[in-house]
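[Q] Does anyone have a clean structure-token version of this?
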Amino acid sequence: MKEHWIHLRTLPLFVVSLLSAGVLSAAAPVPGGSLVGIVRTTDGLGLPGVAVSLAGPAGTRRLTTGPDGAFAAAGLPAGTYTASVDAPGLELREPQTAAVGAGEARLDLVLAPAPVSERVVVSATRGEATLSSIGVAVDVLDRQRIEDRAAPSLLPLLQDLPGVATARAGQTGLQGSVFIRGGESRFARVLVDGVPVNQPGGAFDFGTAVPLELERVEVARGAASSLYGTDALAGVVSLHTRRARPSEALSFRAEGEGGSHDWQRLSGATSGARGPFDWNAGGQRLTTDNGEPNSRFEQTAAALSAGAKVDSRTDARAVLRFDDSVTGTPGPTAFGRPDLDASFEREDLVVAASVRRAEAPGSSARRGRLAQQLSAGYARTDQLSLDPVDSGPWVPEWAGASGSFPLYDLPNAAGFQNRTARLTAGYQADLALGTRHLLTAGAEVEHETGELGNRAEDLLTPARTNVGAYVQDRVLLGSRAYLTLGGRIERNGSYGTHAVPRAAVAVRLHGGVDATTLRASAGMGVKEPSFLESYGESFFAKGNPDLEPERSTTFDLGVEQRFLGSRLRAAVTAFRHDYRDQIAYTIVDWSTYEGTYVNLARTRASGIELALEARPVARLQVIGQYT
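[A] Here you go.
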């Protein structure tokens, strides 16, 4: 095992010094009055990192909102102050004013969505942020768009996004893959309610993924290992389960559909909020014969999100997603008979829990500046390939031509098993430093286990533990420029310790709803080897414990323009991704065909993404993209 040690003990001291400096500077007494408040959307979502301008007797004071959208300005001369917010796609419909005296005044700001609304994302910064302020290429599918699309699986939704290509090895239920900006299917970190669900080594099969009770889907393009560690070479796909809004009345939903190929889908859900509790639960049953011999797919899926407000500052939430499916696998039927007894069984489970505590603004200028969160998650996939009966040999035929030799079935009554699990835990703090910095710092530990191989033999049972610490600073420069700097130190159980940075900038050339925004980002990514690549024991594919991580360096540059009172949004982004130290299989002894894995390959991808979104009238939305 190769290890590259960096002095990890210096990182906590660095983070603590930053946190302490922010608290001390915020707590220092400042003469004059103060103005505090929260910037929210009309549905109650706080907006961190948004630029707020306060125009008053002493000129204009500019600051950014902290965790949950809280802001505080101290040392203000007495007088009347008018607030404005710079967030294209979100409108402060009327000027907001507040009178400041010797004490503390309060002014909460509510932003209404423009016809083409601003997106609020989590995946790019590990916390809520407006898309126009982060400089990273991200696209969001919100609940309304997911419901309007009415797609039976997740893949058709993802293929609608720029820079994303999808593929599936046959009909519904068979292996599905997502490729971001030309990267391999295992080059994207996949998160479900913040829990990583990739198999160790990055692979994730989207074949059975359904948009059951999803609130939104986010796809961040570009290396994101500075926040998420391993697997985020090309981007992040983040799925968020629907949750009931505060004071939402009890509701029930049911839907059924049928069609050709014996397609049947039944689903139902309930949601609501009562007192400090809220819940959303749904289930689905899907069956189809897929129109081919031995291609029947059956799936049962469920999703649950439940939350509780412990007190005025503390929220707790738990999420559970589960699906169980089985599909027939007829094999390569184009040139021969189908295998009528082979099948693929899969069971997936994701559990997430979190507790978040955030200060509310008020009582002093330093309140509302800190939010902390503890989280834990568990993700497991259990996949089993079965072929219990020997169907005998057959000769491939096509267009009157026959193969020169027969092919044989390779039965395995016990089956080939691929069971992997990830147990994660983490802590994150978000702190407003002064009036222009929003610092995010955290640490995570992840334990991976697996049971792999032919169940008729001894299974491979590897285990690996990874630890990471990250820090990120979002800074307001001037009045309309945002800079994001971050980095992570990752200690992986296979390849040792590596550091990965990321930087992004967003600059608005002018304010107003029809803003022009320039953005650029650069980052580095790392990806761990799979269990078989590191620990495999097969003679023909022996694992290599000395593998280095696969790495990436990504760059992109883009511009977004809004027109016609934000009824039309157009964006263009140019990107370049370099992937190196990619792991490849190689033969080490041609006399015996003994093989292993080495860091050998290098690839690059570059291109342009175009996106267009328009809402000419309230009930008509036009969306287009080209990559």
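[Q] Thanks! Anything notable?
[A] The two ends are 40 Å apart (CA to CA).
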